[in-house]
Amino acid sequence: MKLSGQKIVVVGGGIGGLVAALCLRRHGADVTVLEQSQTITEVGAGLQISPNGVAVLRALGLEGALAHDAVRGAAVVLRDHARGAQVLRLDLARLAPDQAYYFVHRADLVDLLGDAARQAGVQVRLLQKVGRVEPDSGAGPVVHLSNGTTIGADLVVGADGLHSRTRGALNGADTPFFTGQVAWRAVVPNDVGLEFAAQVFMGPGRHLVCYPLRGGAQVNLVAVQERTGWTDEGWHHRDDPANLRAAFAGFGGQAAALLAQVDEVGLWGLFRHPVAANWHAPGVAILGDAAHPTLPFMAQGANMALEDAWVLGDCLARLGPGQAGLAAYQAARRDRVVRVIGAANGNAWKYHMRPGPARFAAHLALRLGGAVASERMLRQFDWIYGFDVTA
């Protein structure tokens, strides 16, 4: 195997880090994952794993386990906020037979990946908080832990998320800017009988996305509101559910019933970061949010990390773990993630139109398009969903 004998350290035990570990281990590397938490788990909420992400899990032999824990999505439905009237329905059954779309709880996916990594021989070390990463200057890259110890490797892969220490080592500090939007996230019981579909309730200056999890027993909620001021980035801020309900007081139908059930909610500000200029340096690479954070409006954050992990493993296996393999990885990925991020950046306004002629015309066009050309409307996403990095 091309990577046999290579010692690779992956910083971060989330989705991107665990899949990277699996992909690199698959090519023979000796892989260690460093995770700062005391367990490999995620308290988070729901994720949408679209066909391009499923392709990676399928190639790793994990689609069956994913399907066991997840809900297979039947449709994406756009609705008016006031009464929940349907504006557009995109039937996911019209995708190609091998293009499955799943809704999964983040914790379930991380548990699945953690078990698979350990079974594959990946060493997972918990309570390993990284202070900084030092690229190779002759003796190999070094990971400096916050407790003062160091870990050497042949390659360090930074899958350490939005506030990545590894990204900083390659690019210095960046300056994200607030988008003027905040989002609440919650999981509630599915007492309304929500169908196996992603529902988007579109209102003036705000929208609510919901879809079922865990066999349909729960519902994931993400509620986005335009707002002029915010200070902190990250979603681990608790908020009073009453604030969420007040912000979405005009939402009716199933949206209102689901909001009424929220008893615990997280709130975070949505910031835009530049795509990192450098995804690699001697002995170091980054992937996922560490390289290219994205807004959630195309549900592609986790899927891009899955694609990154596979391509990194493939490039290093074909070209070796040196600069040739690392440069090929960035070259293979950068243009695609820039395009996906651009699509996500431009998507929010479509859900937030104010009452008036423009909103009426837009919703009418969607209704007519869904009635006469729903398959063509679904095909507009082929460049995302039909992209298979494992092919």
Characterization of this structure:
The chain is α+β, with helices and mostly antiparallel strands and 391 residues long. The chain has a domain at 7-43 and 106-175 and 273-345: FAD/NAD(P)-binding domain (3-Layer(bba) Sandwich). The protein is 35% helix and 27% strand. It contains twelve helices and 20 strands. Strands 6-5-14-15-16-13-18-17 form an eight-stranded mixed β-sheet. A hairpin with a 5-residue loop joins β5 and β6 (86-91). α1 (15-26) runs parallel beside α4 (106-119). It is globular, with a radius of gyration of 21 Å. 47% of the residues are buried.
Give the biggest sheet: 8 strands, mixed
Strand content: 25-35%
Corresponding CATH superfamily of the domain at 7-43 and 106-175 and 273-345: FAD/NAD(P)-binding domain
* Radius of gyration using CA atoms only: 21 Å
Average predicted confidence as pLDDT: 89
Please give the CATH class of the domain at 7-43 and 106-175 and 273-345. Alpha Beta
Features:
alpha+beta, FAD/NAD(P)-binding domain, 12 helices, globular
Chart the SSEs and their pairings.
Elements: E1 7-11, H1 15-26, E2 30-34, E3 46-49, H2 51-59, H3 63-69, E4 71-72, E5 75-80, E6 86-91, E7 102-105, H4 106-119, E8 123-125, E9 130-134, E10 142-145, E11 150-152, E12 155-158, H5 165-171, E13 177-189, E14 197-203, E15 206-213, E16 218-226, E17 234-239, H6 241-247, H7 253-260, E18 265-272, E19 280-281, E20 284-286, H8 301-319, H9 323-345, H10 348-351, H11 357-379, H12 382-385
Parallel strand pairs: 1-2, 1-12, 2-8, 5-14, 12-20
Antiparallel strand pairs: 3-7, 4-7, 5-6, 9-10, 10-11, 13-16, 13-18, 14-15, 15-16, 17-18, 19-20
Helix pairs in contact: 1-4, 1-8, 2-8, 8-9
